[in-house]
Amino acid sequence: MNFDLTLIWDSVPRMLAGIGITFQLMALSAFLGMILAVILLLMRLSGKWYWSWPAQVFIYVFRGTPILVQIFIIYYGLPQLDFVRESILWPILREPFGCAIVALSLNTGAYVSEILRGGVLGVDRGFLEAASALGLKAHQKFIYITTPIAARLALPAYSNDFISLMKATSLASTITLMDMTGWRRLLRPTRYLFH
Amino acid sequence: MTEALIRMQNVDKFFGSFQALTNINLEVKKGERIVICGPSGSGKSTLIRCINRLEEHNNGRIFIGENELTDKVKNIDAVRREVGMVFQSFNLFPHMTIVKNLMIAQQLVRKIPKAEARETAMKYLTRVKIPEQAEKYPVQLSGGQQQRVAIARALCMKPEIILFDEPTSALDPEMIGEVLDVMTDLAKEGMTMICVTHEMGFARSVADRVIFMDEGEIVEEAKPQEFFDNPKNERTKKFLSQILTH
Question: Chain B contact for A140, CB < 8 A?
Fold first, then answer.
């Protein structure tokens, strides 16, 4: 057993075969996760318990359990249920790629909505009072004042989450997806390396 | 003088169990310049914030012109269209250029087309003597400049009344003058103004009436000459001696 640098070097191009899947997983789940995050945020900010409460439960569950478990439950668990196999979502949940996207989106959506909420709560009340005094309505204040200021406040934390998301895409290899980690898994036994 | 533009009748305001305003009765006529002073925590800011409903009063009635301030959103909107406000901390929108700060409410609230809103914005920026700063962001301006922009922003909405909430308290001493100059000009043009301020020189030269508040009550109300030279109430005397001896 020796440390073979050329082997590593030779493997890089083959692992890059998975970069397309890695980026697809990242971009698609970041996009869908953001939509979900905004919906969850609006639910939490609505001030109505019947909106806010389900959003809080969702966020609590998805932030409180490991992403790997979430991927397994969606990929291995859900198809056990008959009604899932008969639902319109089956074409998505049948494919490992679809399952990975669903799991990653739900997970990142929960985190990002909390990041956005931090941004919204961080907006100085004075700006909103000034907007009120000028006669802006609640939805105008939210669109033109709160959103742009909160987005700037949330950006550093969001960039962290984006990086976490990219790393989390590697877990998709556990459900047979050939992303970069997936190729690495394939290469290792073919080179007779230790396990 | 014409009928009162602002009428506050027996207004009380509570924050939890703390009573911030007690039985406030105040009438302001069109074109009047009122200065409200008093120690910190005396309810001065709360009083003027009730006038455009940044605070809700708990008892009593407040009328602005024809409109009574109630829970009705329609009335609140109508009042806010007529009442401008300038804050201690300027509160310019940090993500917009100066000229955009002046345009946004015109466009959204008054539905004025963009070109016309920009024209009005530039007109008022020229009036507060900083048209050359139009394309900068608030953080690039000095405190005095920011406060003049805030006054211009309020003026762009063509309000009947402007409320000033300690407009010079957050400024360095050398910038206070430029803001007071703008306010004095406004007063001369007949704008109805209610100013919460500690600038006694301004109160003396500009105000029609000075109101002294303490512990949520209006303690004394007089013309500036009488207020400063011959205060009646003990609390007023004490307050004046404290701020005028330095």
Answer: yes
Residues of A in contact with B104 (CB under 8 A): 134, 136, 144
Of A126, A135, A148, the CB nearest to B87: A126
Convert the pLDDT of each residue in A144-186 to its tens digit. 999 999 999 999 999 999 999 999 999 988 888 888 888 888 8
- Write the pLDDT tens digit of every residue in B102-154: 999 999 999 999 999 999 999 999 999 999 999 999 999 999 999 999 999 99
Domains and CATH numbers, chain A: 30-185 (1.10.3720.10)
Separation CA B90–CA B80 (nearest Å): 18
pTM for the predicted model, two decimal places:
0.85
Give the contacts of A167 (CB within 8 A, at least 6 positions apart).
none
Predicted pLDDT at A195:
46
Mutating which of A125, A128, A129, A134 best tests the B interface, going by the most B Cβ atoms within 10 A?
A: A134
Q: Which residues of A22-41 are buried (b: 16+ CB within 10 A; e: fewer)?
A: bebbbebbbebbbebbeebb
Q: Which residues of B touch A (CB under 8 A)?
A: 52, 54, 77, 80-81, 83-85, 87, 89, 91-95, 104-105, 108-109, 150, 153-154, 157
